[in-house]
Give the backbone structure.
Amino acid sequence: MAASNDKVIITCAITGAIHTPTMSPALPVTPAQIAAEAVGAAEAGASILHLHARDPQTGEPTPDPDVYMQFLPQIKAATDAVVNITTGGGLTMSVEERLAAPRRAKPEMCSLNMGSMNFAIHQLADRHSDWQQPWEEPYLRRTDDHIFRNTFRDIDYILAEMGEGHGTRFEHECYDVGHLYNLAHFVDRGVIKPPFFIQMIFGIMGGIGTDVANLMHMKMIADKLFGDNYRWSVLAAGRHQMPFATQSASMGGNVRVGLEDSLFIGRRELATSNAQQVTKIRTIVEELGHTIATPDEARKMLALKGADNVGF
Ligand code: KMH
Ligand code: ZN
């Protein structure tokens, strides 16, 4: 069994690299918007903030560390939430580009995607027209031919650069059962050490689907592979976000919400902010009889290096 949760960690993924500005006016794109949304999410109860950057003019995902540095200090000044920077980046970025901002920022946490896969969001393009920016439609449509690259060598490289190099720990993003076995390979080699944090992901086209039986299976296999050496969390894409997060909390897991994963707060109703989603899942978690983790409790649960030891 996974280490039991006294407290539930809420991660909020603020903007990501999947959704585009046309899809929702609430999606933050400028550094000021990303900082404000992150601070709002933390105030609502998120103890971890998962962050990507966007080009301030166009809203296109960017790997530029200078853009990250326009919002990271603001977030740090306004909240003690754990900053978690993506190493998945955006769908057009090389592994080197994906590492540029994490290298500069040396955060407490980074995401680490645990396998290569098809990562398809082209179907989102069929739901929209009148694009605000010329990059949006081609960015989405090209993903019917997109491989999200995360080879064993890439994973080793990121572990060495960020883990050994900067003491960063990881949100291990597992989009299918095979990714748990990939994680086990690194755990068995001793390069990933407990207590590690598994983010189980449901509903990305190319990954495992949104059947609750899949969540049960992922959890069962994680228990078999890792015993009580791990912490786990769930995110599901789109309308499955809240049901799957609720299922995770009711099974003793942690939860991730945020506009990176879903733009909605209810059936066909767009969320007005990241904080709105955090407040909703926080209410559910508390109604289930759990307590949410503060940032320092999350740090302790995940053995993080602390907010004083980062590069921003
Ligand atoms: N967009 C999520 C499905 C990353 O940033 O490294 C996964 C994610 C990847 O958050
Ligand atoms: Zn992300």
About this structure: The radius of gyration is 18 Å. The pocket of (5S)-5-amino-3-OXO-hexanoic acid (ligand 1) is lined by residues 13, 16, 18, 86-88, 111, 113, 173, 201, 204, 260 (CB under 6 Å). The longest helix spans residues 152-166.
